[in-house]
């Protein structure tokens, strides 16, 4: 990724993603935090496009920028008398050095390690390869995932049912 | 100036750190869940970046793994939000520092 378009796209999308993720932490209204979370997920979808993961980018927009914020908004609206101020617990300050140490560790590992980088460039097309892999090599996890989704759906319905 | 694997790994690390800070410190259970979703996304970025840049016989395996992560994350979000609504019904709050029934 040496062309200037990719570089500009990366820094723009990274700023959008990290900036709106920071706003999720900083903003004082829970509903506004969800809106910034959507923006952050859209930025991640852009990063996927940049990494030539076209199928995952579309799935990201559909599921993370569409379905999951709707669920979260539902949960906020169904808990009307709970606090909406998006405040921290008393762990707010002690967690900062912990998170900083974790971040420094991961970044130093990522930078120091000599990854065996390939020179093949971006993928031409990913959807058909993913589809074939899901229905041949990974058919058992695929079926288990469908059972898991069914179980989660039934579990969620039974949990919130009023009787 | 070029963009390589390390850039995406650092981006994933920063997103993961923000997510874990949200999950550790927010008072509202829904905000904690938002932090967990952010951490899932950070891991997905890392998977896709490795899939794109690292030498491998079948490089798209990382994409398949991300598909499964998205599936499990969706199931987890549905159940966790149902639990939040259930706790609210019983306790009139979803502040995790007030839900201390199991605290000794």
Could you give the topology of this structure?
The complex is a heterodimer of chains A (163) and B (104).
Chain A: H1 4-26, H2 30-50, H3 54-77, H4 92-112, H5 127-135, H6 139-160
Chain B: H1 5-25, H2 29-53, H3 61-91
Helix pairs in contact in B: 1-2, 2-3
Describe this structure in words.
The complex is a heterodimer of chains A (163) and B (104). Chain A is mostly helical. Helices cover 74% and strands 0% of the residues of chain A. Chain A folds into 2 domains: 1-88, Four Helix Bundle (Hemerythrin (Met), subunit A) (Up-down Bundle); 125-163. Chain A is built from 6 helices and no strands. In chain A, helix 1 runs antiparallel to helix 2 (30-50) and helix 2 (30-50) packs antiparallel against helix 3. Chain B is an all-alpha fold and 104 residues long. Chain B has a single domain (5-91), classed as Helix Hairpins, CATH 1.10.287.3510. In chain B, helix 1 runs antiparallel to helix 2 (29-53) and helix 2 (29-53) packs antiparallel against helix 3 (61-91). The mean pLDDT of chain B is 90. Classes of the chains: A mainly alpha (163), B mainly alpha (104).
């Amino acid at each position: 990724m040496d062309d200037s378009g990719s570089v500009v796209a990366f820094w723009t999308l990274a700023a959008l993603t990290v900036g709106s993720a920071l706003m999720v932490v900083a903003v004082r209204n829970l509903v506004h935090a969800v809106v910034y979370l959507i923006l952050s997920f859209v930025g991640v979808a852009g990063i996927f496009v940049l990494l030539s993961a076209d199928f995952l980018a579309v799935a990201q927009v559909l599921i993370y920028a569409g379905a999951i914020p709707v669920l979260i908004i539902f949960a906020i609206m169904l808990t009307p008398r709970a606090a909406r101020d998006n405040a921290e617990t008393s762990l707010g300050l002690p967690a900062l050095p912990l998170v900083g140490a974790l971040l420094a560790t991961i970044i130093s590992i990522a930078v120091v390690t000599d990854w065996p980088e390939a020179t093949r460039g971006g993928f031409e097309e990913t959807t058909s390869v993913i589809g074939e892999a899901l229905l041949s090599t990974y058919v058992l996890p695929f079926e288990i995932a469908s059972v898991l989704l069914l179980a989660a759906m039934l579990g969620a319905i039974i949990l919130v049912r009023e009787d | 100036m070029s963009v390589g694997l390390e850039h995406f790994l650092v981006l994933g690390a920063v997103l993961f750190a923000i997510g874990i800070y949200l999950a550790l410190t927010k008072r509202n259970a829904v905000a904690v869940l938002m932090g967990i979703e952010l951490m899932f996304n950070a891991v997905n970025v890392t998977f896709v970046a490795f899939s794109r840049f690292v030498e491998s016989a079948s490089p798209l395996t990382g994409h398949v793994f991300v598909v499964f992560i998205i599936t499990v994350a969706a199931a987890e979000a549905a159940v966790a939000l149902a639990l939040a609504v259930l706790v609210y019904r019983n306790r009139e709050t979803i502040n995790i520092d007030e839900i201390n029934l199991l605290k000794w």
